[in-house]
Amino acid sequence: MKSTTTSAQGVSMKAVTQDRYGSSEVLRLSDVPVPEPGDHEVLIKVHAAGLDRGTEHLMTGKPYAMRPATGLRRPKNPISGRDVAGTVTKVGSAVTRFAPGDRVYGVAPGSFAEYAVGPENKLAHKPAHLTFEQAAVVPISAGTALQALRDVGKVQPGQEVLVIGASGGVGSYAVQLAKTFGA
């Protein structure tokens, strides 16, 4: 992606956008305004964005049952992507955990862009030993696996865990986490 440019409306950025549901043919590289963080949000300079199965669902609008929440006829958020890793450039007035310059990863809707805004409670400091690319593929898939094993399954050492679909994003993390939990 190219650097941000100045347009008649102010500062713009490159982003992968879509104005309707469909296959990858609906995706376009567009110039859009750089978003502003709200009070509890963080503006992130995106270094890497992850791709998970949910992003495809948001692109295609399927299953149809999710459309009341994501947009009936077209996506509510025209910028694709959710998983993100990057550097904080600006924080909202109520943000307490991050400051400009912090390296973060987490969930920021619209992460297939030069900049994305994420809620403070969906972000964490990026571990120093992970690259931005490695960190960007963790948030949604690993978070889902962690919630399933720890919060719902309450996995304990010595238990046996069957992971159906262990070759996918969530499943591959579930196998690793189950082992870490001693199962």
Automatic annotation (TrEMBL):
The keyword Ribonucleoprotein does not apply. CDD domains: MDR1. Keywords: Cytoplasm, NADP, RNA-binding. It is found in: Cytoplasm. Gene3D superfamilies: Medium-chain alcohol dehydrogenases, catalytic domain (3.90.180.10), NAD(P)-binding Rossmann-like Domain (3.40.50.720). Transmembrane segments: none annotated. Residues 22-183 form the Enoyl reductase (ER) domain. Coiled coil: none annotated. The keyword Electron transport does not apply. Pfam families: ADH_N. It comes from the Bacteria. SUPFAM superfamilies: GroES-like, NAD(P)-binding Rossmann-fold domains. Homotetramer. This is Enoyl reductase (ER) domain-containing protein.
